[in-house]
Amino acid sequence: MKTKISFVILFMLILSAVTADSFADNPQVTLQITGAVSGNIVLELYPDKAPITVSNFINYVRSGFYDGLIFHRVISDFVVQGGGYDTNMVKRTPGPPIKNESLNRISNLIGTVAMARTTYADTATSEFFINVYDNDALDYDSIIYNYYTGNPHAQIGYCVFGRVIDGMSVVNAIALLPTTPITGGRPDEDVIILSATVTSNEPLCLEKLDGDFDGDCDVDTVDLLKFAIQWLNPKCQGCYSADISGDGEVDFADFAKMAANWLNCNSITTPCN
């Protein structure tokens, strides 16, 4: 217990010395995909067009919420959808729903990423989908006409908040996977989001560093935060990713390995990236 308390004190001192970073005009998120399809999908987000939605998505990414979840709904010539369920089809508990920003009128064209929701407008939480077809029927429309009555009404669309800028071939490969109708579009073989990371580009690491949990070729405060959560809460979902030493638990031995790389990566003479 004393070891953990000492770590918390050290961790808070580290964080207090680091100023909060701000988003670039168009932040990027890299989804590292494994399973039936593997590769990276890089998303460019639009905080100027959908500030609430982008902030919500970024918060899920930075918390590690998407790590280990699957693309559970795949419909060829329509969408691939994920961000809600793990490989056992257990729904991960999301945060509160957000305001629908589909009024930004960005169309659901091929390669755009949008938030999934229920039939009610302001119900999006963590689930998102990538369009693999020009789905303009999902867009906001100020006036449409009811098919049965002919009466005009507003259609609240599905909010687009970014687009795929690299890895669309990975998305298309997911869209072509066989599914079983009884599973509601879930691929017969799982497609897993191994990690989701906020990035300015897509780095290629020359070497895998102990403690680089977000895959950005560096051991930084984001990795320290993920490590702290896992060490202090060993029963949380996905807590074995910080078990660097491979002894079945997250402990001081893992922290020692990570700390050495953190000091190297953040030194003036030998930064990791």
Task: Give a written overview of the molecule.
This protein is 23% helix and 21% strand. It folds into two domains: 1-23 and 203-273, no CATH class; 25-199, Cyclophilin-like (Cyclophilin, Beta Barrel). Helix 1 packs antiparallel against helix 4 (221-232). Mean pLDDT is 81; it is low at 11-24. Strand 7 (141-145) and strand 8 (152-155) form a beta hairpin. The longest helix has 15 residues, at 2-16. With 273 residues, it is of the alpha+beta class.
- Low-confidence stretches at least 5 residues in length (pLDDT < 50)? 11-24
> What is the N-to-C succession of helices and strands?
HEEHEEEEEEEHEHH
Terminus-to-terminus distance: 34 Å
CATH homology group of the largest domain? Cyclophilin-like
Secondary structure category: alpha+beta
Portion in helices = 10-25%
Radius of gyration: 20 Å
Individual helix count: 5
- Overall 3D form: globular
User: What fold name goes in the CATH topology slot of the largest domain?
Assistant: Cyclophilin
Profile the largest sheet.
8 strands, antiparallel
Strand content: 15-25%
